[in-house]
DNA sequence: CATGAATGAGTTTTCATTCAT
DNA sequence: TATGAATGAAAACTCATTCAT
């Protein structure tokens, strides 16, 4: 890892929470220099412009999340165990998630929607990726005879995202974890009632 | 209605979509003067500051939405008809909702969360209001012997919001109405399977 | 007194202290409307512009002061009694003078000096007027054989102003009435040692 | 001296006369950029805000004055020579003082009095400093057996300031140096009649 | 590579003033 | 006369970005 790459990574990590809390428009270059202790010239030496920082921070935040989920899974688990593990991740990580400003996919999706097309594209990719992970588990489950063959994996994968993101939104806004937890229970119910053979 | 009140209302209406699309921080006073044809002095003659415009625009957008839903309902409907009517509203209004920048509650909730406490409070109130409307329908349904008595109205009311907002989020981001429509179907399923006697 | 004249007077009186404290540049038309309860249109209906208000307020403040001094004097007094009466006025009025923002001549002289020629002229006239009053007393004293004939009345009259204004300046700035009181004692000493036969 | 410090100093020097003439409220950032040839961004890069510029300019003006007086004095002088030297400074510098907008202590004291507490504090300090210098000379004179032991040094020190500032005020306002010169003569008379043994 | 110092266009807000009603 | 509602210019300040060193 070159020095340049280290500095880039340092900037990204130091500002990840900032961007997630204040948004991309709301985070100024002065905020970035304050958070990193570096100068503006240095930021521009390592990134083309603020948009590039924003994009890399989003990718970092998104990957971090994805990795945390992946860390809970392993080869030996049944399909059901994997799905429940994912659901449980959102339950146990709620507190820290909350403190770091909520889900970066949700936050970025909303802010980027009508104003930052380059970011919106990345968010869409992240959601697709997330959905694909769930789809893979389900399809694997089908071939392992654990999941009902006839179900539309993609439909369920996205429905789980809907419930999780909607739950985070409401819990964050109302300052009440019950809404997210209810949504997670709903997902578990769906898994057991509609997916598991 | 005094001229001042008319101008206030004019400013609010002319900038409602703007704020919903570009966000509160992202909408500048110059944007507001462009959209209204008025001068900065005139904006400040009618509002204390930009925050007040933001707040009033949110309240306007929120009430507009609420009214549109309410317009679909009437006294003669059964509880089930009312609930399905609400769900259907989000189906039929999807296109226009989409073009106006998505759900103002969702957008404002995310933007205001860590940065604009005065707006966050209003969003929370709006969500509560919305939930209460659904709760009232359900409680009414119980006393009319149409809804299972033992169910927790509040829990279901918020779960519907979770599904609708999560659905809008995903559909808007992925540019694919299927995600919202799936979520709406899920709500209908829940109504018929768990709530209606 | 016509209604117009009454309103003019009302505006002047309500804003006299304001102008003396905040200065002419520092007092905005909004300050004036707040202090009077009138509208901007009404201010402009009664005065040509802010400068005219400023000028009239200065004249009002200046005359008020002059009148207060004059009220302490009467025909029967000796020259010495009159001079000591004037000096004593600044001693006894110190507190209220202080609370109203200090001497309007001093304040206006400084502010108007390099920026508001139309006001500077008025302040100079006021000082001349004040000096002339003292000169008259002294000249009268000469013809009454109470004051040394050879003294330069004008020189002493202005020296008294120097001591009074310098004293007010220092006492106000240091928040310590001793400086003014010392200056007043100096005047008394000069009267008895150099002027009175 | 870093470039930043040089620019700070440059800004202070280029605007010192401006502030003294137009006052702190009356000097706008545009005035500052015009006087320096720099941009607003550059001013804010070197000062926290306009208040900080104002304060530094006052301190500069105040120190400049103090230094000019100090330059006239040296170790070999008797106490009387020193006091007369100070008095004479105000006589010989009258013209340039006048052209630069008058005494910065006087100007700032009046403007800051009811509106800018952070500046008022600095002016008070400057007056104290000035008085202390005179007190030191007098106390030294006492121990050298040149000054009457029983006199209250502080009282006389402040009385000299009263006469000088009152004199400047009147001379500036009436556009007539005689008032200041009279006051200076009065000081000299006091020195010889009441202080010198 | 990073820094320090600058830029110019932008921000929100306030100003004195006007004028139809 | 007084009001309510506007205007346009100017205020203080911040922004993302650049570039010589």
Can you give keywords for this protein?
homotetramer, 197 residues, mainly alpha, Tetracycline Repressor, domain 2, elongated, DNA-binding, Homeodomain-like_sf (chains A, B, C, D), HTH_TetR (chains A, B, C, D), DNA-binding (chains A, B, C, D), TetR_C (chains A, B, C, D)
Summarize the structure.
The structure is a homotetramer of 197-residue chains. With 197 residues, the first copy, chain A, is mainly alpha-helical. Chain A has helices spanning 3-22, 29-36, 40-46, 50-71, 79-92, 94-99, 104-112, 117-143, 153-174, 178-195.
Describe the structure.
4 copies of one chain form a homotetramer. Chain A is mostly helical and 197 residues long. The first copy, chain A, has a single domain, classed as Tetracycline Repressor, domain 2 (Orthogonal Bundle). Chain A is built from 10 helices and no strands. The first copy, chain A, has helices at residues 3-22, 29-36, 40-46, 50-71, 79-92, 94-99, 104-112, 117-143, 153-174, 178-195. Chain A starts with a helix and ends with a helix. The mean pLDDT of chain A is 96. The A-B interface holds A 21-23, 25-26, 101-102, 106-107, 109-111, 113-115, 120, 123-124, 127-128, 155, 158-159, 161-167, 169-170, 172-175, 178-179, 182-183, 186 and B 21-23, 25-26, 101-102, 106-107, 109-111, 113-115, 120, 123-124, 127-128, 155, 158-159, 161-167, 169-170, 172-175, 178-179, 182-183, 186. Chain D binds a DNA duplex (21 and 21 nucleotides) through residues 2-4, 7, 28-30, 38-46, 49-50. Chains A, B, C, D: Keywords: DNA-binding, Transcription, Transcription regulation. Chains A, B, C, D: Residues 5-65 form the HTH tetR-type domain. Chains A, B, C, D: One of its GO terms (molecular function) is DNA binding. Chains A, B, C, D: It comes from Epilithonimonas xixisoli.
């Amino acid at each position: 890892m070159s020095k340049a790459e280290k500095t880039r990574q340092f900037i990204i990590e130091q500002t990840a929470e900032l961007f997630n809390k204040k948004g991309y428009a709301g985070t100024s270059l002065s905020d970035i220099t304050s958070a990193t202790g570096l100068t503006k010239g240095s930021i521009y030496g390592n990134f083309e412009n603020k948009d590039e920082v924003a994009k890399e921070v989003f990718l970092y935040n998104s990957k971090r999340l994805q990795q945390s989920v992946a860390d809970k899974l392993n080869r030996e688990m049944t399909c059901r165990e994997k799905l429940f593990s994912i659901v449980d991740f959102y339950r146990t990580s709620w507190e820290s998630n909350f403190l770091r400003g909520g889900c970066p996919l949700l936050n970025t999706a909303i802010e980027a929607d009508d104003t930052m097309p380059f970011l919106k594209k990345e968010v869409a990719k992240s959601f697709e990726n997330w959905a694909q992970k769930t789809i893979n588990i389900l399809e694997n489950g089908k071939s392992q005879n654990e999941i009902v063959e006839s179900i539309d994996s993609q439909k369920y994968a996205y429905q789980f995202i809907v419930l999780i993101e909607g739950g985070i939104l409401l819990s964050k806004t109302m300052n009440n974890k019950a809404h997210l937890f209810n949504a997670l229970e709903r997902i578990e119910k769906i898994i057991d009632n509609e997916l598991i053979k």
